Request: fold
Amino acid sequence: MIEKHEKLERKMKWMLLSTLIPMTVLLIVLLAFFWHYTNMYNELSNNLAVSSEYNANYKNSNSDMSFKDEVDMDIYYVSIGRKGKDGLPVDQVNKAIATVEELKKTSYKKESLSSLKNLSAYLENLKKRMTQLVEIKNYNDRQEFMTNNTEILTTLFEKEMQNYIYQEATQLVEVESRIAERVRLTLLCMCGVIIITIIVLLRRSFRFTYSITKPVSEILYNIKKVGKGEYRQVTAVSADSMEIQELDEGTRKMAGKIQGLMENVKKEQEAQRLTELQLIQAQVNPHFLYNTLDTIVWLVEGGMEQDAVDMITSLSVFFRTSLSQGNDIITLAEEERHTLSYLEIQQSRYRDILEFEIRIPKGLEDVLIPKLTLQPLAENALYHGIKNKRGKGKILIEGFDLGDDMMLRVLDNGQGMTPERLHEVQEAIRTGKRAGFGLAAVSERIALYYGSGYGLKVSSSEGEGTQIDVYLAKHIKH
Reply:
């Protein structure tokens, strides 16, 4: 197995290198070629730009005259005595000499170097002739000397510079042509290498990829089965590489572990749900029972036997509905009687502060709902709303038909909640984090039976009251 693993690794590296090496070599050659010709092209372009300053048709930024015109004009002013010796264009000529020397460093064509040599000679001779000019005392002699010497030299300089520009421009065109030719040749070579590389790689890769993709596809199919919960239908995959065999083995082990975990989780959830529902159903506030019995005793001692009988009857109905023969699911009518008996008992105790009303449509009475859906909400409205309010309060319980769904509403005009407390309650309902059994427990049980999208929605205003909307489907889904 280890030998196969090493062979697979070598094949993958070789396939990668056999593609990258030719392409890399071609890329390096292409870059070296372009580097060479780009430098040459830039030097030629720079030579043309610099030499163009001395062309007859070139006007620099500081004057509307060319180099020849400026030099001739300055020499003329010196010859007629308008300027002294300091007026000679020595700086312009020296600058031109320095420019010519720089051009020699970046010029390679024989004709161009010859032109630069002539330009250097013309400029050096021009400097000498300018010096000789100022030494001539006679005006006419100076004019004749200027015409036969300096003007001729500037003319020769200008023509030779034009010749140099022509030679450099010709070479620039040649370089451009070479670059285009080399680019075409390089592209053709690259296409040929790519085609050959692809042919070789295709032959090598078909078998190699098939030996990888086929078992991987089978493993993927097994993973899809696991995703659908078909853990027992995961079969072994045949492969000639160690990596894929280990992947297949790990997938099958994972499927087995997931199956065991899912079964355990399902059992734990069922046990937890059963325990939670039993705890909720068995939960009876001892103080409620004690206070109810004390109230019955007080009614009997006070001679109000009928009121005591009514309270005992309500208490009997309350406990009978709580037990409901051990059923977790009861009709909405039974839940209504259970809640009604609770409120009647509490009204006997809090007759000065409590009023209530229940409005459940007849068409919803036979709908099955989880037991203890309304009563805890009525208890919450009494103890956290009505009892904390000064004066008399009212609890209103309503039902609304929403087609396939329905909504139960418990509304009180009690103390209400502060924004902070309301936020805590809403977060507890949203996240399911709670201590004990309260509104969050009721909402969690509803989601457990009906799925996401169902549960409690709480709204409240401090000093005005609280509204709790319970969203249920008409048919339990879980």
